Each structure stands twice: as structure tokens, then as C-alpha cells.
Amino acid sequence: MKKFLIVAGLLAFSQSSFGQISNINMNGAPARLNSYSEIEGSPYLFEDWAKADIELSNAGLKENVAYKLNIHDNELEVINEAGNKIYLNKDYVEYALLERPSIQLANGEEGMLTKLLFKKGFDMIKGVGEKDLVNVLAEGKKYSIVRKFYSDLVTPPKNSYAPTAGRMFVFEQSFYLIDKDENVSSVRNKTNKILKSLNKEDQDMAKKIIKESNLNLSREDHIVIFFQKLNEA
């Protein structure tokens, strides 16, 4: 009898432990059933589901997770192990490497990255919260450059063709350059604009890198190459 109780106790403990482990695998709240049917545009970075690798502080690396990034609410929506749609608790998200849907790569601009790295911890940027996820294109000892995606919900003015003004999502993106002292500059992803935003002592080296590598900083892949070389110089 005593042996049976011990075995039963261990079994109960293991089942309890398994339940706790399952619960912390993908922490988050159930995805809200928001209705966007009467709103033009989209609150999502990509309309199609794609795959992501997500590092969680409480559960390690989760690979090939189905995701959609709601850039209007800055929420990462995923499908967890139980097949439920949830918004991840950003307290536990270390980073997320998001694959671009293949259809966007096929129809997109030259030099688009196939995967986008998102991290939090960039609240030195105005309008970015401590837990907000932003796209990190480059991060180094001298400079980092990040991008904030957002989808504003706006109400266009009424006109003669629309007796009642409808609401619509408007896609926007902003780039921010951060130096080693955490000074932040809003920049455009253009070669001359980025060059002018660099510290003066780095501009000659930056011009040399651009010339030698024939870089166009309107391209995502060239931005990555440029800042990798500049940070190593």
C-alpha cells in the first residue's frame, strides 16, 4: 500500500509538473476577436500567416511558430502548442525572428531580407514603450538602426462620394539611428540621409565603405552590410 501511494504521488506530481510546463511554453492571452471587416487596410505587418523562431525567457527557443504581427497594437499573435491563437506575453519574449511570407518576397523590392529580427528594449526612442517590439536591422558598439512599423487607424474626411466617412488602416514605417551614447536620430532609408546622421568622425569611413562595397542604403540587405562594416571599423 505504501509503495502504491508513493507511485501515485509521483505520478500526480509528474502530471502537475507537465501541466505547468505546458502552460509556460507559450505564455499569453487569447487573441481578441477584433472585427476589422468594415475597416479598409490591415492592422498586421503581413496579412498571411508565416513562420517565426521565438526566444522566450521562460521556455527557451520555439522554432517554426505560426505568427502574425499586429503592428496597430504591437502584439505578436501566434498559434500555441494546443492550436490556439494567443497574443504572446512580451515580458517573456527575448526576440522574434520573423519570416517574410514568400508572396511578399516575390512581389517586393530588391534587397528585401527574408527574415526580420524583432526585439524590445528600445524605449529611448520617442513613442516606443519598454516592451514594444521593433525591427532591428543592425546592432553594434557604434551604431544601431531599427525600424518601427505601425498601422494607424484613421477616419478620412467625408466627401461627396462617401456620405459616411469610413475608417482605414494606414501603413507607416520609421527608421531610427542610435549611436553609442544612445542619441537617437530619425532617418530616412536613403544613403545620403543616413550618412548625414552619423557622427562627423565616422563619415569619411562610412563613405569609403559605401564606395568600396557599392552599397545603396535604400536596400535592407545593404543597410545590414554597411552597419556591420562600420561597427567593425
From TrEMBL:
Q: What UniProt keywords apply to this chain's record, in alphabetical order?
A: Signal
Residues annotated as signal peptide: 1-19
Per the record's keyword annotation, is Signal included, yes or no? Answer: yes
Q: What is this protein called?
A: Uncharacterized protein
